Amino acid sequence: MKILALEFPPVSHLFEWPDFAFEGTPLAMNKTVLIYLFAFALTLGLFLLAGSKKGLVPRGISHVAEGGINFVEDSIVAQTMGPDGKKYVPFLTTMFFFIFFSNIFEVIPFIQFPANARMAVPIAMALMVWVIYNFLGVKNQGFFGYIKNSLFPPGVPKALYIIVTPIEFFSVFIIRPLSLAIRLWANMVAGHLLLVTFAVLSATLWDSTYVGAVAPAAMLILMTGFEILVSFLQAFIFTILTAVYMGGAIHPEH
Amino acid sequence: MLSLIASTISILAAAVTEGEGLKAIGAGLGYGLAAIGPGIGIGIVVGAAIDAMTRQPESAGTARTTMFLGIAFTEALALIGFVVFILLLP
Question: Are strands A6-7 and A2-3 parallel, antiparallel or unpaired?
Answer without folding.
Answer: antiparallel
